[in-house]
Amino acid sequence: MSRLRQLAGVISLPPTVAHEATHYAVASLGTDDAQFAVEVTGGRAIAVWPPLESTLLRVLAFLGPTLFGSLLAGVWLLSGASVDGWRLIAAIGLAMYTIPSPADVAGALGKQDVQQNNE
Hints:
Layout: H1 2-27, E1 35-39, E2 44-48, H2 55-79, H3 86-98, H4 102-108, H5 113-118
Antiparallel strand pairs: 1-2
Helix pairs in contact: 1-2, 1-3, 2-3, 2-4
C-alpha cells in the first residue's frame, strides 16, 4: 500500500504544484508574507499566507486555480478539440488542478479559524 501511495503522490504532484503556485501568485499580490513549499518525498505542495484584508483578493487567492482552470477548460471545450490520447491525460491534470479543496472553499468564505480570530 505504501508504494501505491507514493506513486499517487508522484503522479498528482505536477497539478498540485501548479494549483498551489496559483494560490501563492494571487496571494502575493496582497501580502509579502505569502509562502510556497513543495515536499517531493511526500508528494505535496502548500501555499500559506496571513489573512488578506481585501475580500475580493481573499476569494481570488483561494479560488484562483478553480477560476483559471475553469476558464482553460471552457476554452478547450469551445475549441472543439477531442479528448483522446495525451489530451486525456492533460484533461485529467486540468481537472486535478481546477477542483477546489474543502480548505479552499472555506478560505474563500472566510470560515477558516485563523480568519475568524483576526476579524
